[in-house]
Amino acid sequence: MSVLVAFSVSPAGTESVGPAVAAAVRVVRASGLPNETNAMFTTIEGEYDEVMAVVRAAVEAVRASSSRVSLVLKADIREGVTDALHSKVATVERLLTS
Question: Are 65 and 19 in contact (CB under 8 A)?
Answer without folding.
Answer: yes
